[in-house]
Structure formats: structure tokens, C-alpha cells
Amino acid sequence: MTTRQKPHITLSRRERQIMDILYQHGRATAAEVHAGLPDRPSYSAVRAKLRVLEEKGHIRHEEESLRYVFVPTMAREKAKRSALNHMLETFFEGSVEQTVAALLDLSAAKLSQSELDRLAGLIEQAKAKGDWK
User: Fold this and answer.
1) Is the four-CA dihedral 107, 113, 117, 120 of positive or negative sign?
2) Which residue segments constitute the domains of the chain, with CATH numbers given?
3) How open is the CA angle 4-90-22, to the nearest 5 degrees?
4) β-strands 59-64, 28-29: how paired?
5) Residue 52: count of CB within 10 angstroms of its CB
6) pLDDT by residue (tens digit) across 107-126?
7) Which long-range contacts (CB under 8 A, 24 or more apart) does 113-122 make?
8) Residue 2, class by beta-carbon neighbours within 10 Å (0-12 exposed, 13-18 middle, 19+ buried)?
9) Residues 6+ apart with CB under 8 A from 62
């Protein structure tokens, strides 16, 4: 890719799996990505997905010893925030309250007391900042 594109948010399940591998390793060849995938598709299918991810702007490649090494273009934390903002706007009309309520509804029975305490602490910190509208 010669020009830097803004990464598209939407990723397929397989693209997310590939990105997870790249984030875990920091960089990987197509063979390394292929070896790390569950229910492994063909090697050519992996190369095609890597090409798509590069076209979308999520990864770039570097040439090393006659092979391509793929590297994420965005830090994992920044990618998480971007995906979360996209989800917030798309499904919850930008409402943090609706998003958190939906997450708690899905996982309330799975949360430990220490996790609930941590969430309560984060809410208290947000209140103390007083940066609400």
C-alpha cells in the first residue's frame, strides 16, 4: 500500500483472529499467522485475508529475507478504543450508560465481587473528575 489509509473498523471473524495473532506476536509472516489460526483455512486464503487487511489499513508489510512480515498499523489499545467507539455509536446511539447497562446485563452473573468493586471504583473516579455534560 503506497498511501496511508485510515483503517476500517469492520473486521470479519477470521480477520479478527489474524489481528489477534499479529498483536500477540507484534509481527508475523503469513506462515506464522497460518500456523496460529484455529480451523486453519488454506495458506492462500490466509494470504488473501492479509492482503485485505492491508488494503483496509489495519496492517502493513515489510520485506525481510525474501519474505513479507506483517505488522499492525495501530497500537492495540488505540484499536480497542476505535472499535469500542464504533460499537457505542452504531448500537447504543453514543450512550455510555446504555452500553455499560447492556454489558452488565450480559455478564452480571459472571462478575466476581472484586470485579464489581473495581467497576464501582471506576464509576467513583469518573464522578470525582466531574467531566460530564
Assistant:
1) positive
2) 13-72 (1.10.10.10), 76-129 (no CATH)
3) 45
4) unpaired
5) 17
6) 767 888 898 899 899 889 98
7) none
8) exposed
9) 27, 68, 69, 71
Which residues, 6+ apart, have CB-to-CB distance to 59 below 8 Å? 19, 22, 50, 53, 70, 71, 72, 73
Rounded-to-integer distance, Cα 30 and Cα 91, Å: 34
For residue 84, which amino acid is it? Answer: L
Within 8 A by CB and 6+ apart from 95, the residues are 88
Specify the pTM: 0.65
pLDDT one-digit tens code per residue, 56-106: 999 999 999 999 999 999 888 888 888 788 888 889 998 988 888 888 888
